[in-house]
């Protein structure tokens, strides 16, 4: 992830509902959730939820899979890893390889 992608991710997460969605999808893990389930859980209207999901998708923080007529959303752990790697690239005296185990541990392969 580069600086512009990181700024896009932070901008996406700087809104309360989108941060809640991202955290909810991390909690859902590999099962993911449909847009309707997310909206119900967070008490957010469908059109508002669709806009927020689109922003998180463009930021690379979530991914989606079509299941028949519905779409299931998941936290994109590769996107999270990329964000963490960018933030930690100069850690440990400029030796990001030392931080890689920490990044992998924080952003599990669910």
UniProtKB/TrEMBL annotation:
Keyword annotations from UniProtKB, A to Z: DNA-binding, Transcription, Transcription regulation
Pfam families, alphabetized: HTH_20
Top-level lineage group: Bacteria
Domain HTH arsR-type: 1-95
InterPro entries: ArsR-like_HTH (IPR011991), HTH_ArsR_DNA-bd_dom (IPR001845), Metal_resp_trans_reg (IPR051011), WH-like_DNA-bd_sf (IPR036388), WH_DNA-bd_sf (IPR036390)
Keyword Ribosomal protein listed: no
Protein name: Helix-turn-helix domain-containing protein
Species: Roseovarius pelagicus
């Amino acid at each position: 992830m580069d600086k512009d992608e990181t700024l896009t991710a932070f901008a996406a997460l700087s809104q309360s509902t989108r941060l809640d969605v991202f955290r909810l999808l991390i909690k859902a893990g590999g099962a993911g959730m449909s847009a309707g389930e997310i909206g119900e859980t967070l008490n957010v209207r469908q059109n508002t939820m669709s806009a927020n999901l689109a922003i998180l998708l463009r930021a690379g923080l979530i991914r989606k899979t079509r299941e028949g007529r519905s779409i299931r959303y998941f936290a994109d752990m590769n996107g999270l890893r990329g964000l963490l790697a960018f933030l930690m690239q100069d850690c440990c005296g400029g030796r990001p390889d030392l931080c890689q185990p920490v990044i992998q541990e924080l952003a599990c392969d669910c």
